[in-house]
Amino acid sequence: MNNNTLPKTERLCSKLLIDKMFVGGTSRSFSVFPLRVVFVEVEKQAAPASILISVPKKRFKRAVKRNYVKRQIREGYRLNKHPLFEALQAKEYSLAISFIYLSDQFVTTQEIEAKIKTLLSRIIEKTA
Prior knowledge:
Number of strands: 4
Strand order of the largest sheet: 1-2-4-3
CATH architecture: 2-Layer Sandwich
Structural class: alpha+beta
Largest sheet: 4 strands, mixed
Shape: globular
Helix content: 40-55%
Number of domains: 1
């Protein structure tokens, strides 16, 4: 099986976890423009990290454009998640991570991928 996939277990679907991430004071966040990441430690799950991607309707009115940006973020994460997974598995740690798109302009896929690499390395630092 190819390890560069993004299975259902790595997608954040739990309403309770999402609420905990954005309401409770236990989550941590930081930004690397055009992305903001919010993450919170959760009890052990099937996957070391599960993600949520949000592109606000305020930024892009048309769903086609929002879905395009989500696809770019998902692809950048999918290709660069392995160092994060290795670090989390070494610490027996699980995270729920949310990526929020902040810009109202399109950004190239290469730029988004570079920003995601930066975000993931900073998450590894902060969980250490």
